[in-house]
Amino acid sequence: AEMGRTLVELFYDVVSPYSWLGFEVLCRYQHIWNIDLRLRPAFLGGIMQATGNKPPAMLPKRGEYMLKDIKRMAKYYQVPVKISEGDFQRIFGTSTLGAMRFITAMDMTQPGYLEPLSREFWIRFWSQREDISQPENILAVARQAGLSSELTQKLLEMISSPAVKNRLRETTEEAIKYGAFGMPAVVAHFNGEPHLFFGSDRLELLGSVIGE
């Protein structure tokens, strides 16, 4: 982090609608608060498995609440998340491993593109309700984010490389080491120690802790 700036790491997976909400708010506030925002693509499936967590919608009452909550949050934060009951099955049936490896490859190649690329994955999956698990859909997302076909091809080739697989695994393990059990997991490095905040509804608290 630059002198005097608080490093804030956002661990996220594009399968998570709450991660999209947290991402958009932090992307807005990186220009208002004295923070250095670092986007950390990780794999939610790995975090759930390692910590024994279950998707919130597995509990029907919580699923019902989540539908209302995400609609309210989307309206409040003005992020075009669309959610309906059928989406829970859709999420369980979709693996974002390829997408998160693609985003990780971008992080290793041109991290400046992480923000628009990640946003396009969320828009496709959570606003347009389209699949993001197939290579041709990943290609469409990359085009939408303004990537050249050369760069896209390079990133697609990197997806299956040990370097990318290891990097995604290491980032996921790092989130777990900080205490993450779900996403978004936001880690603020303040006064020489990491402070973990879970979810997109703890950002006022994050601001308060770092003196914003």
Automatic annotation (TrEMBL):
Pfam families: DSBA (PF01323). Residues 8-209 form the DSBA-like thioredoxin domain. The active site is at 16 (nucleophile). Gene3D superfamilies: Glutaredoxin (3.40.30.10). The keyword Cytoplasm does not apply. It comes from the Eukaryota. The keyword Transferase applies. Keywords: Transferase. It catalyses: RX + glutathione = an S-substituted glutathione + a halide anion + H(+). Its EC number is 2.5.1.18. InterPro entries: DSBA-like_thioredoxin_dom, GST_Kappa/NadH, GSTK, HCCAis_GSTk, Thioredoxin-like_sf. Belongs to the GST superfamily. Kappa family. This is Glutathione S-transferase kappa 1. It comes from Cepphus grylle (Black guillemot).
